[in-house]
Amino acid sequence: MTDVTYTGTGLIKALRDGWIITQRDLLHWVRQPATPIFGVMFSIMLLLMFGFLFGGAIEVPGGGSYIQFLLPGMLALTMMFGLDETMTAISSDAKKGITSRFRSLPIGSTAVVLGRSGADMAYSALNLGVLVVGGLLIGWRITSDLGSAALAVVLLLWLRFALLWVGIFLGLTLRNAGATTAVQVLIWPLGFLSNVFVAPETMPGWLGAAAQWNPISATATAARELFGNPTGATGGWLADHALTMALLWPLAITAIFLPLSARAYRKLRS
């Protein structure tokens, strides 16, 4: 397989090749829509469950409606959903020999993983849009200006983009059913050990500190601020630097796992 140096026309070629592979992955979802549909339905179910079953018993530090507090957190949490499916799709392509066919084509090693991430980002944007509409229907409101709200959406997708490279890397290196199950199990503790559902100030000291340093917490807090919703944080370092951390955490994750994914793909053996 040709390895393209991504300068000038090489970068354009990589992006074009990646777009072709993105279309291929999107076509799979069009033909088999059950997975994306059930994924969206699951996110809506969680929103309704926590918003209406538990919301009446949860107070937001600093005041404010729990629905207003919950919705941006749920948007951040859903950016973690589907990583196991990304991992499974990458592994499946390798096992079926599809990866070997891609490797025989004159395309750069990054184009294939970029294509997969492009398809997942399209799905994530759709999931995000459905949840925003669902939130508006149950009483959530954006009280900031349009520019701030748009920046909040960008930060949410920025987090998703970074996390996708973790799923792609694991799919290229851990190609067995047990590894997929392990990722599914880990997603929930990492997602719940955050400020998505409750403020860290209500947790025991050591647990609250761990929750504050979770990348999901940084994006959730930044999104709440940008949407004009209550943050549930009455003080602390995260409350003062949420926007900065929402930018830096995904940057660090991408800087680590994107090159690792490209390297793992170059070394992949079906």
From TrEMBL:
Sorted UniProt keywords: Antibiotic resistance, Cell membrane, Membrane, Transmembrane, Transmembrane helix, Transport
GO biological process: response to antibiotic
GO MF term (any one): ABC-type transporter activity
Superkingdom of the organism of origin: Bacteria
Keyword Transmembrane: yes
Subcellular location per the Swiss-Prot or TrEMBL entry: Cell membrane; Membrane
Membrane topology type: Multi-pass membrane protein
Primary location group: membrane
Pfam families: ABC2_membrane
Coiled-coil spans in chain: none
Membrane spanning residue stretches: 37-58, 64-83, 125-143, 149-172, 179-198, 247-265
Record-annotated ABC transmembrane type-2 domain positions: 34-268
Annotated PROSITE patterns: ABC_TM2
GO CC entries: ATP-binding cassette (ABC) transporter complex
The family this protein is said to belong to: Belongs to the ABC-2 integral membrane protein family.
PANTHER family: NODULATION PROTEIN J
Name by which UniProt lists this protein: Transport permease protein
Species annotation: Arthrobacter pigmenti
